[in-house]
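Annotated sample (chain length 151).
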Amino acid sequence: MATWTAVIYCYKFLLMAFGAFLAWETRHVTIPALNDSKLIGLCIYNVFILCTIGVLLTAAISSNPITSFCLIASFIIFCTTVTMVVIFAPKWRTICLARRINIEHKSPQSPATDKSSDSKSNPVLIKVSVGKIQSKKLNSENDEKIEIDER
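Output written by the structure step:
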């Protein structure tokens, strides 16, 4: 049993090392929406620390299988939740901020003049990228450009 556990741990370690290698190789990607190497590195660090603590605690309380199972399950749930929040929260925040900017820049239309709410009467172009939001209002007398840099 100990041999299979060691083989599984080695396999999982190699997967994490490969993920760290891919994050290291993609750290200089020029497209900001694809450059998540810092966040991926943080997630790999998080997974490594939590897995190490989980393995040590599970080995220490291996005599009680129910407690061991609950500990492993809680580490898995916590680790995956933190990883998903770290990766997707900045993207979700950027999209919500872009929607808010898009809504704020739409001029209110009276129902008597124009009943269509599509972008033909007041087109607002939103370019969303991770970390930056650029909004440009078109077809107006004064072109307006807004740039927000999130850090």
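Annotation: The CA atoms of residues 5 and 83 lie 24 Å apart.
Annotation: Residues 112-125, 129-145 have pLDDT under 50 and may be disordered.
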